Amino acid sequence: MSQSTTNETPGHAANHDTWLPAWQRNDKFYKIFAPYSRAKESISGRPLPELWDINNGCILWLPARAEIKDKIIPGTEIDRKKDGFFDHPVVVLKVALRSPTSALLTCAQMTSFGNRNLRQAKSDSDWRYYLPITPSAPHPDTGILLDLENEKEKRSMSENSHICLEGIFTLDFTAFRCYAEGQRADGYRQRLTKVSFDQLAQRLGIEPGIWIKTDTLWEHFEDYFELET
Hints:
Strand order of the largest sheet: 4-5-3-2-1-6
Radius of gyration: 18 Å
Helix content: 10-25%
């Protein structure tokens, strides 16, 4: 997943902006992934993530129900959720790849409690239903605090955040947005460490899909679908 020179073909985004997603700045993967990219899709707000930038532990954004109602299958778990469940960050638990442009993501909802910590937001009887992520305070009972791979500015959580252990659902990949707002965002910008993800999976009692290291996500995607330039 190394970066090399920027592709600046006529009409390319590089001619209009000085920043590009990392895969577009890599000669090899730009050629491989460009036919499957969602970069040309016009949306407002948070950008669309690319499928090769997503794996277990990545934090994405679930838009408001009204924005993605065409993606929700009637009768599914998420269809039964109230509107307040939407327009929140989520953490990816499993990626079921179907094609270079299609996948189902199993996720857990996240909440900031209005930037409060768990002790401030919930009674002690409800603490067991949540796991905090840095920069939140550690869990008041267990002391658990999940960490991100990259805690640098603009790659950490913008507010105190907690994973809701009862907010599990599966939805089409195309419904999601990047967690970070603005152009400089991608699917792996905010991602749990493997140690933290394993803690989450153990707490949920789930068998997640294989963990792919962030710096090998592109190679794995290329090999999985046997993509060629």
